[in-house]
Amino acid sequence: MTKNQTRANGLFGIYIHWPFCVAKCPYCDFNSHVPHARSIGGAFSEDEFIASYKIELAHYANLKPKQKVQSIFFGGGTPSLMSAKAVGAIIEEIHALYNVSDNAEITLEANPNSVEVAKFKDYKAAGINRVSVGVQSLRDDELIKLGRTHSVSEAKSAIAIAQSIFERSSFDLIYARPEQTLEDWRVELNEAIDMSAGHISLYQLTIEQGTRFFDLAYSGKLIMPNADLSADFYQLTNGICNEAFMPAYEISNHAIKGEESLHNLLYWRYGEYAGIGPGAHSRLVLDNVRHALDNERLPHIWHNKVSNIGHGIVTNDKLTYEEEGDEYLLMGLRLSEGIDPKRFEQLSGRALDKNKIKDLLGYGYVEHLNNGNLRVTNSGFSVLDAVVADLAA
Ligand SMILES: C[S@@+](CC[C@H](N)C(=O)[O-])C[C@H]1O[C@@H](n2cnc3c(N)ncnc32)[C@H](O)[C@@H]1O
Ligand code: SF4
Asked: What is the span of the domain harbouring residue 222?
């Protein structure tokens, strides 16, 4: 890539991380904290935290003044614990600092507890135009095992209310759970599709270090599906979703045509994003160099840092061309549209290895599309990590 060619692709989004939850789910290793717990330094005030979000937004906006924004995503943690006033104040601040597209997608992740769902109308008035509800399972006994604080009937009502208020909505389910059979999942997934408004996120349960599920799995008290069964779960999921015209546009995200999440696509198409809040990550092209920035994870320390120095950034690394190429593969190969080999070459400074592609084509793990893109096949997705590692090496 010459010095004049931009490493950015024009896609830019803002991620707002709200790190608080009512309770910690036993499988979750996201940066989430129960307010008043010692880890966040005792009591917290929403107003004071929102003041810090505004300060940090201004810091990031100064790094890329008047940047055009296509999407905003409130994730967590549980952003539906925020008041609509706080959500509105952040959206207003983003409008003041950035050049937000008229048709920007503005999503908020919501837990289906009734108190939170009661705020949906006010969230819409505050500027949210899409919600993603964390349903996780349509079986009450499974919700209990997952440590969730809502029932199936609350989840169904949250989906219905979301669909009556917002033009666009989605919900998340976790599958390949301990003791779940393929038949159980077939029935549950079909129920979910019948309820969906055209977008669902379907995640296979992963066991993350540092979680209660990790300890249980380690001590043999939680038996996870083996690799073969996991692959069967994945194939079954794709088969059912394809039949319902909700193919995977990304490995875990399914949508009817036109309902794909712009914000999700922005990550996987290797766009830029400013991550605001405790533990948020960013990728920004500054002076034509891609930077990876990470914020302090602990909410009260992040808050103090922002109050004192105007941001909570703890690392700011300039990515090498090789690292950019690797990240582009890691993100883009999750997409059904695949990656553009020319963009890979522009970013990394080297062409993809023809012999490796030939081998992967031979195994049936990748295929070329008519537009020249290279994508992972259905069978390749079962060994995605190995395919990415092979091409990146
Ligand atoms: C971090 S949560 C935030 C949303 C919200 N707090 C909730 O719980 O619904 C985002 C999504 O990640 C998924 N998730 C979190 N931990 C997971 C795990 N260990 N395995 C699979 N999916 C997971 C869940 O589906 C969840 O909806
Ligand atoms: S899954 Fe959601 S609600 Fe549960 S701890 Fe993680 S972020 Fe919080």
From this structure: 12-267
